[in-house]
Amino acid sequence: MDFRRAGTTDEIVSILAEVGPDATLLAGGTDVMVQYLRGEIAPKLLVHIEQVDELAGVDEADGRVDIGALTTHLTLSEDPVIRRTVPGLAEAASQVGGHQTQAVGTVGGNLCNASPAADTAPPLLVADAELRLRSAAGTRTVPLDRFFLGRRHTARRPDEVLTSIAVRPLPSHAGETYLKVGRRGAMEVAIVGLAARLVLDDDGDVVTDARLAVCSMAPRPLRLPDAERLLVGSRGEPEAVAAAADAVQETTEPIDDARARAAYRRRLVPRLLAEAVRLCMRRARGEEESWS
Amino acid sequence: MSLIGASVPRGDAVAKVTGRAVYGVDVRLPGMVHARLLRSPIPAGRIVTLDVDDAWAVDGVLAVCTADDAPPRRTGLAVYDQRLFADDVVRYEGEPIAAVVAETEAAARRALEAIRLELEPWEPVAGPEQALDPATRLVHPHWAEYEVAPGLEFRRHGNVAAEMISDPGDVDAVFARAPFVVEDEYRANRQYQAYLEPKHAVVDYQGGRYTVYVAHQYPFNVRDRLAQILGVAVSRIRVVCPTIGGGFGAKLDVGLEPYAAVLARKVGRPVRIVNDRLEDLLTCTSREDAIVQIRSAVDEDGRILARELTCLMNCGAYAGDMPFLASIPLHLAGSVYRVGTARVEARVLYTNTAPTGAMRGVGGTYLTFAVERHMDHIAAELGMGRRELRLRNLFRDGDRMLTGQVIDQAGTLRQAFDRMEQVAPWAQVTAPRPLHGVGLAALIWLTNPMPGSATLKLNEDGTLGVVTAATENGSGAVAMGLTQIAAEELGLRPSDVVVLAPDTDAAAYDAGSQGSRTTHVVGAAIRKAAAEVRRRIFDVAAEMLEVSVDDLELVDGTVGVVGDPGSRVPLGEVARTATFTTGPIAATGAYRTPMPAHDPTCATGLLFPSFPTPTFHLHLAEVEVDPVTGRIHVVRYVVVQDVGRAINPTGIRGQIQGGVTQGLGYALFEQLDFDGARYRQRSLETYRLPTAVDVPRVEVELIENADPAGPYGAKGVAEPPVVPVAVAVANAVSDAVGAPFDRLPVTPEDVLAALEERRRRP
Ligand SMILES: Cc1cc2nc3c(=O)[nH]c(=O)nc-3n(C[C@H](O)[C@H](O)[C@H](O)COP(=O)(O)OP(=O)(O)OC[C@H]3O[C@@H](n4cnc5c(N)ncnc54)[C@H](O)[C@@H]3O)c2cc1C
């Protein structure tokens, strides 16, 4: 196995153009190294991109927030712009693995690895995230809900590097959360993760817009449009939440694995949804601070 | 100022936290080569083909070894049922079938892949209940031909590797006229010791002797078992122990040493072998899974009149030390609380799963789980307070265990309940709060009595060398306990005491780091040796100072004259004088705790007949249950523990915090169960150890009721804090949810199911 270090995005792009599918990008390495040691991947060339500074950091301009692919979970959980505009993402990033994982793991790595349990995926899905993928041929933009194709399978072409993620900030009268279920308080692959973003009318009564997304409930993280529609127009009353939960059950296909049984995952859905709706509405009304 | 009771910092801490300590896995010898094992991929079956020819051809391979060229005998601890390599039949997933040794580990791995192995899979004997069914295939069809270790007597039959039965004969009559009978069944899964340092060994064979480098809890057992397996005299084996990265019971028996020894002899070079984490997890002698049925006859006042307890213990494919552990059910079925008369049966069962064995708190964890969960159930049946029921039945000074053993200091339990009441008043902590619960659990535990020794030698600069095979397993028993005792005895600073790491060529026998014995047993041995060293020091110093020996005292590294601060001579000077006149000052002390008397007719198969140096414990857990996820948060944990005498309070608190942490893992996180006969959890990602954020700071209350034989009154400390934790937590969760949790671990899945069930009920 060869190892190369890229100092700029241009360098990454030219290495990928040259080597293509034989190259594996190495950001924080928290997925790559584990998979390599387990023999799940056998890259011919590792391209170390962690030190490409232009790919890290958060930018806010013209009503959009841009997140560099190499931004770490630690940065996401502490960054004031993220905490104000995509608080669910900060909440998720603070729950990725433990302190060590958060210090080196990146959001781009989390998305490109495309684990069914990727924690940053649900909050980015509810923030209408769009990914910028660059190759020698140019840059294209892919909405996140069309990026995940299956377990460890994405729309990224082998010659592309993910440069940044654009998200829609939380509007006013809106609340957002990410709820992660694990057995321990840290170092857990999500048993279920649920992100919600609810927008209320000016009176803070009626849901005018709803976004829901889950991880660990299907081979890939999912937006849940059917359930969202059942919440719009509601006041978050139990019947509406129950109906939305039923819709989630219909669109998802949880499995039994060594972490939890499918039955538990199913049992969690209505409870998490009710809790998420309750939290989002309180936050939208200013009755509760966003996650801090 | 006395060092006894002082929280002296441990001398090995800096090397450990800075990464400079040399662990067993760090050992490298010149010319060393690397071995790996071919392990069975299936839990049960017959070897159809085992062709190693291609492995020999792999570049760098030095030797390949199978059952055909390994020692032929079956050996073991109680039952001689195990060969080094599976011969015809494989009995558990991970069982060694062949070994290769090569210049590099990579070459050894390649060689393993070149071995042609064909197996005919059999339906595995998956669990203890299936093993007991007469229709089930025998894991060892030739069990009757197996030898048993000399001096041991116990019943075996079919898949029952060992049986312990105690039946006083009057139990049924009491049940027949009892006002209440309460009956329960409890189940507990396995627990992996999950030490940081995987099992390993480096063996060098030269001049007809094997030198084994292994970080181990019980170096002399490595010597003895290796001698047994290889069929050589114990004096042909030397075991040297570097720093150990944890053991928790799994490093009491031999592990990989015999494979390295056989191969080292074959290739004439030092051989290193190390488990990877998967191998270690799959083949470790984890704490056994068990099923406990318990039934009690109770009167209107809550007095327990009689009890019946049956315990099935899964020993996996080979018996290991489990026949000894079959005694624990008798000890725990009727201690702490008076139970009148009791029938107790324990069966150790062969299955096609990895062999199980000792882990911190052997058997006690799930037996206490059963006994104390059952107490809560009895209280509920009678509508009586849970604390009140316990106090009514609590042991008093001089009460007898079911073995007939008298527990002199059993009144310490009452003291523990009173102390707990001071720090966590029952009425206050149990005041009803939604999804909040409290659990209590008490315990009498033992201090392992087995022998140990120490040689003390006064160095010519006045410092002290201690030669002992007592092992520092990380607990501080050597680094703090023994060091402080030796320093105190001779008026030295702890930093002036240097304890040699275990080397079976240098030190006399020691029974290893088990059952909290080191400070108690070896501490007593050190005191004996120190008395002799002191006598010799005083003899020489008396002449030097021209006073009578009766006027001398040891202070701050000097010998002084009582009442005359001006007359003193440094110990170094005494040592030098002694060395070149009467000879060097050194002495050896040895100790073994006498076994307390018991009634030998009380049971059959009772291989571990009594509980020496008993200690007394009371735990309280407070939990909150998350109504959304069912997750359990342990919000408060209090331990009241009798330690005899706290030699180093900080060390003790560390051991209690660690024991409780391991107990919380067993209670809530550490799931190790089966898909058929294969472990479902196959890495430390899914085998979840508790993390720092999952564990509360444990509140510790020490009781110091001295043991007359222990050094300064010290009793065993470090093993038992793991024991009552699971049940304290399970009782608290049952209290919080209002439903019984009778299976370990207690999972959020079960909690959520119970919460839903409760909501459906009117
Ligand atoms: C102990 C531990 C705990 C963990 N806990 C969690 C958890 O709780 N939740 C969770 O979601 N994950 C968890 N993970 C997984 C992992 O930490 C995260 O997915 C992390 O965000 C990956 O980022 P990375 O920078 O380390 O990615 P890397 O390992 O460097 O890369 C991951 C993948 O993405 C590709 N890649 C990386 N950057 C780019 C880019 N800019 N463009 C194109 N492709 C790219 C790589 O080629 C590789 O295929 C854990 C991992 C460990 C080791």
In short:
In chain A, β2 (23-26), α2 (32-37) and β3 form a beta-alpha-beta unit. Chain A has helices at 9-19, 32-37, 73-78, 80-85, 87-93, 99-104, 107-113, 121-126, 225-231, 238-251, 262-284; strands at residues 2-5, 23-26, 45-48, 58-61, 64-68, 130-135, 138-143, 148-150, 153-154, 161-167, 174-181, 192-200, 207-215, 222-223.
Could you explain how this protein is built, in words?
The complex is a heterodimer of chains A (292) and B (762). By secondary structure, chain A is α+β, with helices and mostly antiparallel strands. Chain A folds into two domains: 2-113 and 129-167, 2-Layer Sandwich (Uridine Diphospho-n-acetylenolpyruvylglucosamine Reductase, domain 3); 174-284, Enolase-like, domain 1, CATH 3.30.390. In chain A, 34% of the residues lie in helices and 25% in strands. Chain A is built from eleven helices and 14 strands. Chain A has helices spanning 9-19, 32-37, 73-78, 80-85, 87-93, 99-104, 107-113, 121-126, 225-231, 238-251, 262-284, and strands at residues 2-5, 23-26, 45-48, 58-61, 64-68, 130-135, 138-143, 148-150, 153-154, 161-167, 174-181, 192-200, 207-215, 222-223. In chain A, the strands form four sheets. A five-stranded antiparallel beta sheet of chain A has the order 4-5-10-6-7. In chain A, strands 11-12-13-14 form a four-stranded antiparallel beta sheet. A three-stranded parallel beta sheet of chain A has the order 1-3-2, with helices on one face. In chain A, helix 9 (225-231) runs antiparallel to helix 10 (238-251). Chain A is globular, with a radius of gyration of 19 Å. The N and C termini of chain A lie far apart (43 Å). In chain B, helix 15 (477-490) runs parallel beside helix 16 (517-545). Chain B is 28% helix and 25% strand. In chain B, the strands form eight sheets. In chain B, strands 3-5-1-13-10-11-12 form a seven-stranded mixed beta sheet, with helices on both faces. Chain B has a seven-stranded mixed beta sheet with strand order 7-8-16-15-14-9-32. A four-stranded mixed beta sheet of chain B has the order 19-27-28-31, with helices on both faces. The longest helix of chain B is centred in the C-terminal third of the chain and has 29 residues, at 517-545. Chain B is built from 20 helices and 32 strands. The mean pLDDT of chain B is 97. In chain B, 58% of the residues are buried. Chain B has three domains: 13-20 and 449-591, Aldehyde oxidase/xanthine dehydrogenase, molybdopterin binding domain (Aldehyde Oxidoreductase, domain 4, 2-Layer Sandwich); 31-122, Alpha-Beta Complex (Aldehyde Oxidoreductase, domain 3), CATH 3.90.1170; 290-448 and 598-760, Aldehyde oxidase/xanthine dehydrogenase, molybdopterin binding domain (Aldehyde Oxidoreductase, domain 4), CATH 3.30.365. Chain B has 762 residues and is α+β, with helices and mostly antiparallel strands. The chains are: A alpha+beta (292), B alpha+beta (762). Chains A and B meet through helix 11 of A and helix 20 of B. Bound molecules: flavin-adenine dinucleotide.
